[in-house]
Design goal:
It is a single chain. Helix content is about 45%, strand content about 15%. It is built from 22 helices and 18 strands. It is globular, with a radius of gyration of 25 Å. It binds adenosine-5'-triphosphate. Adenosine-5'-triphosphate (ATP) binds next to helix 1 and helix 2. This is UvrD-helicase domain-containing protein. It holds the Pfam family UvrD-helicase.
Length: about 600
């Protein structure tokens, strides 16, 4: 049996090979294996020659910001700038494979979601119309197909329409209409991430020499981080680059494939990685305790023959088993209290505890403060954004959304609806001649100047907002175009703001960061409580977990649970319906996973 030091040396050795081995290279790893660290070190340490750079791509701004920060910390900020590229795969595709091939006959508008231009489609059910957002559809397209597919997703905000259309057998018709609307908007020049991918692939296939010359002339290596999130289209684009001998480094943990709404495809991702020829499997988990590593192994499908991750980090000897906390409907707050009390006994402070759930609405209210999604109502949305900007626990992505909402509020106040409607803030700024950087500063100032919507009657808050907005014209010389963009105290807006307040900041001593799982990919925390929903799907999820047979309908939910559980360093707690809690305890014992059933505190 190898000693801890020998196991660590073996894990470091593989990391070192992944840092130095030339591309093409497939790096596969378990959670906490140091993928991010390897990518950054590869970028920092390898010597570059010639005029070409390296592209380091990821799917989220948070992951890219981390690479940029590490370059800065290592006193090598230039590694994040020209001729290198550190950014999202979306921006990379847009810059190097889409924009150069766009025709000059219209104005192109790049958007990250159809919500940026409030794109909707109206579907008639025979009696009444249903207005559905295009962002409520899941879009997909097989690389060789001529058309997209759309599928309406069931969400709380469209639940009524979804059920009506489903009962009348109209879901397919709704999808057809959505596709039609999308095609119309695409023809007008709106390019979403999905549309950009189709265009990038087309450029690589139809203008191959030019497209490859553009990419290969600029980069001598492309590193794809979190590659498990690649969609079928992403993989088809990468396959074109691979076949043209562009050196790729493909880094992923296929079991963490949870790209919401894009249909993660772990098997395809694995196959693509293997097609690169040489591969390195990072072993050793530097993050988590032995119990957490052992639990993670039970969440992988039986078809994946991967041994338990080896805990080699500072928490390898942590004695606590997995905490299982019974929490039937609406009892999550009691589960949270039990989790907090236990974490106290382990001297884990509140700021190092994290509560995770699949959906923001499922988070216990004392952990909910940072994860609410922005409301639809225009004035309530501005209030939401001000709350987020004032919160010291809101994650970067949420703050970015909040800043953009306030930028839009300022534009709408000073210009007309038609100036901003169906436009991103960026394009609106371009067409109105507004300097975007100035607008961002004004938005930040507005957030800190306004009173808290939690402690001010909403009518007064709107009045204060309008008075302040009057003082910050985006163009100093302008006068207001019309009055349509004032903040208004309607009954529905006030109700939304009241609801925000009810889930408002808990007292400082119990304040714990709460998040939906999709927002914490790549992160870690000492103690993590995962709230498993008490609903009809949980039975199927637990059955699949115990059997190891992950059918398509539950596979992604299990991977989401896997990502959540593996964020924990020292302590992992699962809150789940009572019946399942005891079954799970029995099951984990058969798998040698240390666990303990806790009593929720009332
Ligand atoms: N060689 C090492 N020595 C000590 N600590 C390490 C080493 N490699 C990684 N770590 C630490 O382990 C933790 C996990 O690393 P990292 O976030 O890079 O893993 P990851 O593979 O990206 O994880 P995940 O995919 O689960 O997000 C970090 O705290 C990191 O600093």
């Amino acid at each position: 049996m190898a000693t801890l030091e020998q196991r660590r040396a073996a894990a470091r050795d593989r990391q070192q090979r992944a840092i130095t081995q030339p591309a093409p290279l497939y790096v596969q790893a378990c959670p906490g294996a140091g993928k991010t660290r390897v990518i950054v070190d590869r970028h920092l340490t390898s010597t570059r020659s010639g005029h070409r750079g390296r592209a380091v791509l990821s799917f989220t701004h948070v992951a890219c910001d981390e690479v940029v920060r590490r370059c800065r910390d290592a006193s090598q900020p230039h590694l994040a700038t020209f001729p290198n590229f550190v950014g999202t795969i979306d921006t990379f595709l847009w810059r190097y494979l889409v924009r150069p091939f766009l025709s000059s006959d219209r104005t192109w508008n790049r958007i990250d979601s159809w919500d940026r231009i409030s794109a909707t489609v109206e579907v008639w059910d025979g009696k009444m119309p249903h207005t559905l957002r295009l962002s409520d559809f899941q879009w997909s397209r097989e690389p060789d197909a001529a058309h997209c597919r759309a599928q309406l997703l069931f969400k709380v905000r469209n639940a009524k329409s979804y059920k009506t259309l489903e009962s009348k057998g109209l879901l397919d018709a709704a999808a057809e209409q959505a596709i039609h609307r999308r095609n119309e908007l695409a023809r007008q020049g709106h390019v979403t991430g999905h549309e950009a991918r189709i265009r990038a692939l087309r450029a690589l296939r139809e203008q191959r020499n030019d497209a490859i010359a553009l990419v290969a002339g600029r980069f001598d290596e492309i590193v794809i981080d979190e590659a498990q999130d690649c969609s079928g289209l992403d993989l088809a684009i990468l396959a074109e680059l691979r076949d043209a001998n562009v050196p790729l480094v493909f880094v992923c943990d296929p079991d963490q494939a949870i790209y919401e709404f894009r249909g993660a495809q772990p098997d395809r991702v694995r196959t693509f990685g293997e097609s690169l020829g040489s591969s390195i499997d990072l072993v050793g988990n530097w993050r988590s305790s032995a119990a957490i590593c052992a639990l993670a192994a039970t969440l992988r499908p039986a078809s994946v023959t991967r041994p338990k991750d080896d805990p080699v980090g500072p928490n390898h000897a942590e004695q606590d088993g997995i905490l299982l906390i019974p929490a039937d409907k609406a009892q999550d707050v009691h589960a949270l209290a039990a989790f907090n009390a236990y974490a106290e006994t382990r001297d884990i402070p509140a700021e190092h505890r994290l509560v995770l759930s699949h959906a923001a609405a499922k988070l216990p209210s004392t952990a909910q403060n940072t994860t609410l999604t922005p409301p639809d109502n225009y004035s309530a949305r501005a209030a939401w954004a001000v709350r987020i900007m004032a919160s010291d626990t809101a994650p970067t992505t949420l703050r970015e959304t909040a800043t953009e909402i306030l930028e839009r509020t300022i534009l709408r106040y000073w210009y007309t609806d038609t100036d901003t409607e169906l436009r991103t803030v960026g394009t609106a700024c371009e067409s109105l001649g507004v300097e975007r950087s100035r607008l961002r500063i004004l938005a930040a100032r507005m957030a800190s100047a306004l009173p808290s919507p939690d402690s001010t009657p909403f009518v007064d808050w709107c009045a204060a907002g309008n008075s302040y907005l009057r003082t910050i014209p985006p163009d100093p010389a302008m006068t207001r175009r019309d009055n349509s963009g004032s903040l208004r105290n309607s009954a529905s807006a006030a109700t939304v703001v009241q609801a925000l307040r009810r889930g408002a900041e808990p007292t400082p001593e119990t304040r714990i960061r709460g998040s939906v799982i999709h927002q914490v990919k790549g992160e870690e925390e000492d103690a993590v409580l995962v709230v498993v929903p008490d609903d009809a799907r949980t039975d199927a999820l637990v059955d699949a977990w115990f059997s190891g047979v992950h059918s398509a309908d539950v596979a992604e939910s299990l991977r989401v649970l896997y990502v959540a559980a593996t964020r924990a360093r020292r302590l992992l707690a699962l809150a789940l319906p009572t019946a399942h809690c005891h079954e799970l305890a029995d099951y984990l014992k058969t798998k040698d996973v240390a666990c303990e059933v806790l009593t929720p505190l009332t």
